[in-house]
Amino acid sequence: MKPRTILFLSLLLFLSGAVGAATWSVERDGTGDFTVIQDAVDAAESGDTILIGPGRYPETSDFDYYYNQTVQSCIKLEKSLAIIGAGKDQTFIGPDFGNKNEYGTYGLASRSTQLQLELRDLTFIDCDGHAVLFDMESGGRLMMDDVDTENCWGGGFEEDCR
Fold first, then answer.
1. What one-character-per-residue DSSP string does 93-131 give?
2. ∠ CA(50), CA(56), CA(57), 5° rounding?
3. Which of 5, 108, 112, 138 has the most CB atoms around its CB within 10 Å?
4. DSSP tag of 34
């Protein structure tokens, strides 16, 4: 193979990795890639963006917290993502039921350290645990813009979940 061909193929491979961030859409009406936020989070890779349409997203699943406690969480996060709603008066994340267990229900929960998380244009609602449980003391970075909480325990944000 010619050196220029090898150089071209190497450059093409390098550029394809640099452009790899994807955008996923979540829409309650089924017009997006997903109808459940956690499904989009599970499919996404670190660096991806998840766009969430209008509506309430109440789905929860078990999240293994510390000291053998299992809590409920609408979003379990173990990778760096941008999660962007349609507006804090249009996109609502939170359970539509009372507390399922003694430890509470969280809007978003992560035990991973050093994640980069961007939250924008959404509201966490009716979380009897924190709205966001995220570790920033170990190097994580949480950026929020136009994020609100309604009826969440303690106002909503726990920065150190160690």
1. ES-SSS-SSTT-EEEEE---SS-EEEEEEEEEES-SS-S
2. 55
3. 108
4. B
Q: Which two tokens stand for residue 95?
A: 């359970």
Task: Please answer whether residues 117 and 134 qualify as being in contact, where contact means their C-beta atoms are separated by less than 8 angstroms.
Answer: yes
Tens of pLDDT along 77-112?
Answer: 999 999 999 999 999 999 987 555 566 788 998 888
* Separation of alpha carbons 66 and 63, rounded Å: 10
Give me the residues of the chain with pLDDT under 50, please.
Answer: 7, 9-18, 160-162
Nearest to 132 by CA among 93, 161, 154, 158: 158
Q: What is the pTM of this model?
A: 0.81
- Using DSSP bridges, classify how beta strands 70-76 and 61-64 pair: parallel, antiparallel or unpaired: antiparallel
**Structural domain boundaries in the chain:** 21-158
